[in-house]
């Protein structure tokens, strides 16, 4: 008798990571496909899952913004996104219809937060925020062991930073807000401003401290507003040598010793590395198969 597996999708703007197995730590098969058009990408993903045999549940952790409210007619949809062709794509509904299994749906950073909380840098803590700094900046938050949901999902990339006194001329790259955090410190913002990635710039270049300062402000804001114990900073920009250390130092300086229990507030890299998102998506599948949302 064939035993039904769990399926998982980490849906990114450049690639879809697919996985099938018995659980987050028991992935038996995985596959990666490029993100092209919705029709091509979703049909390729469907064909791969159909080759894996029957599924008992599917978890999707998707780039966004997305609709997470199950009471909404647009639940499971990608909303207005800069990714061409993907606005209003019914991502979750496609797999509900074609696979006839329970589907859980979250943002990609919520998935990564779940993965790190369950099996990575956030094990043993009640509250955690995962932030990815790459093509965009996004955050997923866990408080008292549960993902933070509300009118939407956290949009940490679109908070406003206090501009550095020597950084007034760059307008920012965010098409909605200009110089929000994403408009100042994301990969495209760095490239637009200096013509290179942060990793390509010499260590004494002013860009390193400037970007670290904006990310440190975000970390201080998260500590002060959410009272989390751990912030996990992932994404391609965070792979720049020395950046994490700069963020940690500047966030500590911004805190000025005011916040209670400052000694337990940590800013760390993801322990699961690039596996955080797909691990979280498997957790989402597990919950969906068990009847959870």
Structure description:
This protein is of the alpha/beta class and 293 residues long. It has eight helices and ten strands. It has helices at residues 38-51, 91-99, 108-119, 181-185, 187-194, 206-226, 243-255, 276-289, and strands spanning 5-11, 15-23, 26-34, 55-62, 103-107, 128-133, 137-143, 146-147, 230-234, 266-268. Strands 3-2-1-4-5 form a five-stranded mixed sheet. A five-stranded mixed sheet has the order 8-7-6-9-10, sandwiched between helices. α1 runs parallel beside α2 (91-99) and α3 packs across α8 (276-289). It starts with a strand and ends with a helix.
Share of helix, binned: 25-40%
Strand order of the largest sheet: 3-2-1-4-5
CATH superfamily of the largest domain: ATPase, nucleotide binding domain
Tell me the β content.
15-25%
Measure the end-to-end span.
28 Å
CATH architecture term of the largest domain? 2-Layer Sandwich
Broad CATH class of the largest domain: Alpha Beta
Uncertain segments are none
Question: How many domain regions?
Answer: 2
Radius of gyration over C-alpha positions, nearest whole angstrom: 19 Å
| Helix count from the secondary structure assignment | 8
Question: What is the H/E string?
Answer: EEEHEHEHEEEHHHEHEH
**CATH topology-level fold name of the largest domain:** Nucleotidyltransferase, domain 5
Mean pLDDT: 95
Structural class: alpha/beta
What would you call the shape?
Answer: globular
Number of strands: 10
Write down the oligomeric state: single chain
Report on the biggest sheet. Answer: 5 strands, mixed
